[in-house]
Amino acid sequence: MDEKEKGLIVRAQNGDHYAFEQLVSNYDRQVLNLAYSIVGSIEDAQDIYQEALISAYKALPKFKFKSSFFTWIYKIAVNKSITFKQKKLKANTLSISQSDENSFSVDNDLRISHSDTPEQSSVNSELKFEIENAILNLSAKERMAFVLCHQQGHKIRETAELMDCTTGTVKSYLFRAREKLKSALKYYMES
């Protein structure tokens, strides 16, 4: 953490709203993308993002500089996202629909090129949909580990810190997630 960020944190801890806005603006896109990757809905991700910011602002006086501000706010967003996902699953309100325009992008490498044949474009579109559904059907913790490591590019150690668990636990989540994805996408892997 650099001195400028430390200064902003101290100012924000002393009630400077502008300093807090500056801190958050450095990481807001990453926090919003994280929430979006976990919950699969832009509206829900925006709500989680707002809740994470409110929680961070309220808890800022307790920030002890033991981690970077980014890690701290990211962890808050991770916890808010997991809690949201668990509540939604408990209430059985999770619905996955092909017509969901807000479905998150699972793999940016699955873009359909203009040179694809109509048949290939159709297969690519179907595969992308199946991957999205398979990831949405992972448990909250498996999905979190998968998103953090494979979509957001975090190392296992960083993911463990963000998920507040051990690296072994993250590896276990990743193993189970990969196995479930392989099973769900078996048809496409054999083709």
Structural notes for this entry:
The chain is mainly alpha-helical. The chain has two domains: 1-94, Rna Polymerase Sigma Factor, Chain: A (Orthogonal Bundle); 114-191, Winged helix-like DNA-binding domain superfamily/Winged helix DNA-binding domain (Arc Repressor Mutant, subunit A). It has ten helices and no strands.
Task: Set out the fold topology.
Layout: H1 3-13, H2 17-25, H3 28-39, H4 42-59, H5 69-90, H6 118-136, H7 140-151, H8 156-163, H9 167-184, H10 186-190
| Oligomeric assembly | single chain
Largest sheet geometry: none
* CATH C-level category of the largest domain: Mainly Alpha
Mean pLDDT: 79
Beta-strand content bin: under 5%
N-to-C span? 48 Å
Rg, Cα atoms, Å:
19 Å
Shape: elongated
Number of discrete helical segments: 10
The strand count comes to: 0
In short:
The chain is mainly alpha-helical and 191 residues long. It contains 10 helices and no strands. Mean pLDDT is 79; it is low at 92-114.
Which terms would index this structure?
single chain; 191 residues; mainly alpha; Rna Polymerase Sigma Factor, Chain: A; Arc Repressor Mutant, subunit A; 10 helices; elongated
